[in-house]
Input
Amino acid sequence: MADVTGIVLAAGAGSRAGGPKTLLRMPDGTPWIELSTTALLDGGCSRVIVVLGAQALVARTLVPLDDRVTTVVAMEWEKGISESLRIGLAAADGDAALVTLVDLPELPVTVVHRVLTSTGPLRQATYDGRPGHPVYIAAEHWAPVADTLSGDRGARGYLVEHGVDEIECSDLWDGLDRDEG
Output
């Protein structure tokens, strides 16, 4: 399997959630950020970068203590998801990056594994045909993706334009994000 860096985008203020989603926990007390990070590692990523922003100092305390996990801070996180993704890709190394969002704490390891073991330089999990996460981006696409990012839009335009391989995962999960713990 390729040497893949997992990236968890966790920099936003979480206006719909009433605060940064990075600080949210499941009913049993497990931080969302821990679940997202663990899913990427257990699914096959070699390492994980957590991109923090709003309340980064507090959020960093919830990131798992693991030599394979590092944090970076998107200082201009207010610019939207584009800034977080740009920072995450700049910090990544290896053959590819697998990107997910902190507000997908229930992302199953099976979905991560399916996307990682599929083929193609650009891959995106889909749920009944609806694009979702995680998204696999081969290293040769990092700079071109970063060049297209702006505002609160992710890489979807680039992915479509460059023939993303859609990996259907609705048999494993619904792919829906959460707005509260």
